[in-house]
Amino acid sequence: MNSDSVLILPGWLDSGPDHWQSRWQAAQGYTRVEQHDWARPLRGDWIARLEDVVLAQEVDVPITLVAHSLGCLLVAAWAALSTQTHRVKCAFLAAPCDVTLEALRPVLTSWKPRTLHPQAESISPVPTTAPLVAGAPVAPVAQKLPFKSLLLASRNDPYCSYERAQALATGWGSSLIDCGARGHINADSALGDWPEGHALLLALQRGEPVQFPQKSRRSYESD
After folding, report:
1. How confident is the model over 59-76, as pLDDT tens digits?
2. How far apart are CA 104 and CA 106, in angstroms?
3. 8 has which bridge partners?
4. Averaged over 146-156, what is the pLDDT?
5. E strand segments, 20-125
6. CATH 3.40.50.1820 fits domain 5-222
7. How many other C-beta atoms are found inside a 10 Å radius of the C-beta of residue 125?
8. Model's pTM, two decimal places?
9. What phi, psi does 107 have (nearest 5°)?
10. Separation CA 16–CA 21 (nearest Å)
11. Would you give the end-to-end CA distance of the chain in angstroms?
12. So where are the chain's domains?
């Protein structure tokens, strides 16, 4: 039995019943972070909601974040502000979306990346007593995550080029897994329960080396 508190972080419009995130939740009893508005994803609101859920977890139980698409950007934005990041053991980040894409800008307006002053190394931490609210300052997307992370990227993701995913992995300090040509790594990718992905999640939690099986990657590409 998994001893971690595993939080599922879907992207824009949530993850449907055929999505691997929903399948893992049903099979493993993981906790979905329910956003108040899936259709209008305001970054400040989503950060505040994740903070609330993290604070609601048992203090002595390590947290694993399992994110998809915009949920990956949520992890980075939350980690730059929260004082609770020490409670996170690791983050599993699948198919991050590229919020700079023209097609996504009208929907993800509040997620536009921001940069720091060239001489600044980090943003000021949020005081422990300060709540995370909409409109709070947000760190740049590329800021290194303060916990171990694994990023899985597809070679033909319509919402993020592989090169952009590589850049995000570098900026976040994440290990990168090449999943081959598997679209947005969602329900349309016909992953089913995605056992290979779940095996990687468990290896990440155990601190073991993670590597996507080449046989599985080739079979994906031939589908």
Report:
1. 999 999 999 999 999 999
2. 6
3. 32, 66
4. 98
5. 31-32, 63-68, 88-94
6. yes
7. 12
8. 0.85
9. -90, -40
10. 8
11. 33
12. 5-222
